[in-house]
Write a structure and sequence with these properties.
phosphoprotein; kinase; transmembrane helix; membrane; HATPase_C_sf
């Protein structure tokens, strides 16, 4: 009984009735065509003429289903009323030829089954009610049927209510079967095509790339700021009583670093909230300011004009240097750092070295991802990067082709 009259069965019956309503304009067009061939008669005069009109109407429905925007409308109805898994159906208009043909097949089947079930739903219930109440009103058979019909005998009148109930059950069974057929075919005809799956995969890849970029920006910006602040605060604590001027400079550097990092953090969080605007990331032209605030003695040499570096390469190079300084703070203590930036032969070369202090490095819980991020940035631009001990120094080197910005 639940399969015939449950909530899902009722929703699917409504879905079929909507299909019958959608069939009516095509049926009227078919009646005009049939009437022009056989004038003087209506498509509703006889069942054969109505059946011919029904068949003539279906090709017009099939043509309507080829419109790309038809698929999202049909998917909405199938998700809401047919009990189909939403993930099994496609989103967006049907772009490819295969998707449009499958959508047209679904629409044609929907209006065909809906037209048949709508006609049955209009015709059978009044007749079944007549059969159910016939034993209580025997005189009804004389007003509707001839006295020589099957309802003229006592057995015919006695069996009429059972026949009426059987007809209602048959109508419910036909509706449930048609609804189940549409639900089974929905993923096949309204499901994503190979082109849709490819577009969805590309969209997921693009979103993942954005998430990875935001993760790298947060790691490099916030990680560097915390390392610099930790070093400045530690040095200021050690000389708090003996060198107040140094403490004042360290506090000023901490203030500037945190203010800049909060601005970058707001920019990244704005993108996570899907606000408009682009990620405001510093580039090589801001490198000297970064070196002055880091709290390390940096011997910086530059060959070439950083303003001529493409924007994307310049931003990624800035982040690589920033992460290298963070590693120097964690692993080299206050040892001086040597940084060389050179532009030559369509390539940007970065080399950073700092002596190994021999002390245990500052290890963060869970380990760091900075070196992996540096390698990812370089590879995405078509270059390469390496980092590791070289004798008594730690060397970070990266080569970024300027054409990687394309």
């Amino acid at each position: 009984m639940r399969a015939l009259f449950g909530v899902r069965a009722r929703h699917r019956w409504v879905h079929l009735v909507i299909g019958g309503a959608l069939l009516m304009p095509y049926f009227l067009v078919g009646s005009v065509i049939v009437g022009s061939i056989t004038p003087g008669a209506s498509s509703f005069d006889s069942f054969p003429r109505a059946l011919v009109t029904f068949v003539v109407a279906l090709p017009f429905a099939a043509v309507s289903g080829l419109v790309p925007i038809a698929r999202p409308l049909l998917v909405f109805g199938a998700r809401a009323l047919s009990g189909v898994d939403p993930a099994a159906l496609a989103d967006g208009p049907a772009r490819s030829r295969d998707a449009r043909l499958r959508t047209s097949a679904w629409y044609t089947l929907h209006v065909a089954l809906g037209g048949i079930l709508s006609g049955m739903s209009l015709a059978l219930p009044p007749f079944t009610v007549f059969l159910i109440v016939l034993p209580a009103f025997p005189g009804l058979r004389h007003t509707v049927y001839s006295t020589s019909g099957p309802l003229s005998s006592g057995w015919g009148i006695a069996c009429a209510p059972a026949a009426g109930i059987a007809m209602l059950l048959a109508l419910a069974a036909c509706s449930a079967a048609a609804g189940a057929l549409l639900a089974r075919l929905a993923p096949v005809l309204l499901g994503p095509s190979p082109a849709d799956r490819l577009a969805a995969a590309e969209q997921r890849a693009a979103e993942l790339a954005v998430r990875n970029r935001l993760a790298r920006e947060l790691h490099d910006s916030v990680g560097h700021a915390l390392s610099a602040v930790t070093l400045q605060a530690s040095a200021a604590r050690r000389v708090l009583d003996s060198d107040p001027e140094f403490v004042r400079e360290a506090l000023a550097a901490i203030e500037e670093t945190t203010r800049r990092t909060v601005g970058e953090l707001d920019s990244v969080l704005g993108l996570l909230r899907q606000d408009d605007g682009d990620l405001a990331t510093p580039d090589l032209t801001a490198l000297e300011g970064l070196l002055s605030r880091t709290g390390l003695k940096v011997a910086y040499s530059l060959k070439g004009d950083p303003a001529s570096v493409p924007e994307l390469v310049s931003r990624e190079a800035y982040r690589i240097v920033q992460e290298g300084l963070s590693n120097a703070l964690r692993h080299g203590g206050s040892s001086p750092v040597t940084l060389q930036v050179a532009l030559s032969d369509g390539e940007l070369a970065l080399v950073m070295e700092n002596p190994l202090s021999g002390a245990a490095p500052v290890v963060r819980p869970g380990g760091g991802r900075g070196l992996r991020g540096i390698a990812e940035r370089a590879v995405l631009l078509g270059g390469h990067a390496s980092a590791g001990p070289d004798g008594d120094v730690w060397r970070l080197s990266a080569r970024l082709p300027l054409g990687g910005a394309r």
